[in-house]
Amino acid sequence: MMGQLFVYPTFLAICIAGISRPWIGLIGFYGFVLLEPQWNWRWSIPADFQFQKFIAASVIIGWALQGFRVPFLARSAKQAVICLSAFLAVGFLSTTQSIDPQLSAFYMSNMWKIVLFAVMAVILLDSPDKIWIAIVVSSIAQGYSAIRINEQYFQDGFSLYAYRAWGTKGDNNLYSNLTVPLIACSIAACIYSDRLWLRLTTGAIAILQIHQIMLLDSRGAMLAAVGMGFLILWVMPKNSFTIRSTVFTVIITVLLAGPSVVREFRSSFESGENRDSSAESRFQLWKAGARITKDNALLGVGPYAGQRLVPSYYQGGLNATHKGLHNLLFEISTGFGIPAAILYFLYFLIPWWNLVRLKWAHRSRVPLPKWYGAAQLAVIAGIPGYLAGAMFSSGALSESPYLLASIGLATLSVAQVESMREQDAEPGSEGEQDSLAEGH
């Protein structure tokens, strides 16, 4: 009943708002993607109700009514959008010669929608408030699932979803990889919010998301989260609140990590003779992926079709017709080819590198605007988190990393516009304001 009382009115409001204000529809679209109401309220909402399809339609209609207006985009944002669009075009070209047209058609039917809304996010998130709201909504939307996963564990004494899928986003590894970039969003919102209730909410969500990663027993996501933690320590402002919060989070994480989590994490560093079969098979799969890529370097063998060749390329062979590569790089390179793989990763690396560079450029500027500081922290920490975790199980069809990269690109564009406005208002302060706009 709660689902019907909350989800349907929210859905209707987003659809209506999306027509007059497409950016609301866009953020609502990602909110519903991450919230998964068909799963979280599956006892009262039909599993096949296409919330996202209707919201997407309202966004496109609203944008069309605005004449498909494109705001100022930074040079880096244009470059990244071109890279992602070219990647998609190469994917469709590769599909025409796929060794498994059905698999490739399935993959591309999802990928083009992800790419479309990633590009629309770069365009429609054209103000500080919109970027800030996108970060907060992303955190809270997935945070509800993190609450439910933790709730099941504390009620039953074991994590059911370490062994079965949560929602429609894949197995424990894939869902963990979807969550990793959103942990960065939650922490960023907690640090930069000026409202106590939002700090407490997003801070609690971040802790639950971290515990969720541990409960789902995803070694790749655990490693990614640890690495992401060091990046957060580097990027975050150093003050009494962030230092106390960091100490508190570390203590809570250590207390929540039981013996099974510690064993699972430590097994990632075992030597070859002591490595378990799952970890050992990953290395063999990656070797097979590298060889498939080498033999099909230009266009690959068709999106998502590389798994068809893994059994024959696997050392010693496999008694199977398909075998997933469990690696983002090789999933893309075997399916799309090396040029497309470069284009794909550039979409994530362009915003990351530009924000890292600007982090150094204005490292002495304190405080940063909350929207910019939050986006900077989330992108600099979250994108490497996604890429690292996805090297152990892929996640190319998870929406959260694309949204985060788009937030980064939108931030570069909006920061440049804001800096130009401030320079016009205060002509004598050009040197200081250039620090946010320089080199976009």
UniProtKB/TrEMBL annotation:
Pfam families: Wzy_C. Keywords: Ligase, Membrane, Transmembrane, Transmembrane helix. Residues 206-345 form the O-antigen ligase-related domain. Residues 420-440 are annotated as: Disordered. InterPro entries: O-antigen_ligase-rel_domated, WaaL-like. It is found in: Membrane. Coiled coil: none annotated. The chain crosses the membrane at residues 7-31, 51-68, 80-99, 105-124, 174-192, 213-235, 241-262, 328-350, 370-392. It comes from the Bacteria. Residues 425-440 have a biased composition (Acidic residues). It comes from Roseimaritima ulvae. Its main location: membrane. The keyword Membrane applies. The keyword Membrane applies. GO terms for cellular component: membrane. It is a multi-pass membrane protein. GO terms for molecular function: ligase activity. This is O-Antigen ligase.
